[in-house]
Amino acid sequence: MMKKILLGCLLWCGVTTGSMAIASDVLPYWHESPSKAQIIDFVTRVTDPTSAAFVPVSDRIAVFDNDGTLWSEQPIYGQLAFLMDRIKAQAPDHPEWQTTQPFKAVLEGDLATLKHGGTESLLPLLAATHAGMTSDAFRETVSTWLASAKHPKAVYRFLADELGTTRVQFNPAVEPKFFKESAPAKIEQSTKPMQDSPRAKPDHPLSVVTPWTVDPDDYGTFLSGVWDEWLATDFGRVHVNLFETAIAQAAGLPAQTCTQAEICGKGLAVEHDGEVFSCDNYVYPQYRIGNIKDTHLGDLAFSKAQESFGTAKRDTLPKQCRQCDYLRLCWGECPKNRIIKTRAGESGLNYLCSGLYAFYQHIGPDVVRILRHLGYLKT
Ligand code: SF4
Ligand code: SF4
Predict the structure, then answer these.
(1) Quick one: which atom of ligand 2 is closest to the CA of 327?
(2) Is residue 111 very low, low, confident or very high in pLDDT (cuts 50, 70, 90)?
(3) Residue 257 in contact with ligand 1 by CB distance below 6 A
(4) Is residue 326 in contact with ligand 2, taking CB distance under 6 Å?
């Protein structure tokens, strides 16, 4: 019975693993709750050889249902993208797939036919791509796919075409592991990793950021891919503030975004009790600038403390930024993300630096062309 239930979950979620070990820090990101306790109790019982509920490794199929909270759902689920890419990769060994549904639909990128077939049409695809291999082989396949599956164009087309939005803002997900305890500028210098080191990437166990933080190089690849698509099809129609800010700043105009501006400090955070902080990324005791019950918000916004916060964005940049070719476009991005050291060991470099640099390098020739076209540059 246990096996049947688990198998049902497998078909639903398409995620398998051969074994599950209970470690001391299981579910570290879950709040303490009855659900968490029940899950841990269940897994403990089915993996304990002395328990009556023990399930041998060979009979185990463990499934994680995350209620979609970890899935990107648009334009398609990541799991479906994986499945489709695997079918395409395996197709040379299966010439019959060219004329057999649902494989034909996958090979032709025909999502409408695939959707029309419903869940049942996914089963042969799942069997062809997820069965008959060990957990280690499956993990290896997924890791290889994850490292190569980049879809900036698909994401952008979804936003611009399917959602029909004409204003797009990309906010990189960067979450320092210590954000609950300390403001970025107050982190102990010795704990900051150097640019390009393994700890300055999200997938290292001792990384400075949480695992769901975007990889800096992936961020640059994503922005560059979206820029190419946007420039080719939607320039002037869809407003991507990061892109338009880069063009504006290259023309000597102000940034639209605080993160790319020379100084910041106009995004104060007011809490429910009237407490005011320098920015909603800086709700820490050291960045409290007052309370609107005592002081007018305008006076707080133009206070010395807030002015210092804003100018620190420029004045605390490391030498690598001050000498960077793209300083006037980037300005070290948001100080919240300055949690690593430069290659020379100086503190205060932005975690996203390598991606930002690659992006600005990528768009440079296009920006020059645009500035010429707009009359900001002669010839
Ligand atoms: S700290 Fe970052 S988000 Fe806050 S105002 Fe400055 S640049 Fe903007
Ligand atoms: S690209 Fe990197 S080095 Fe250049 S200004 Fe931005 S964060 Fe600094």
Answers:
(1) 5
(2) confident
(3) no
(4) yes
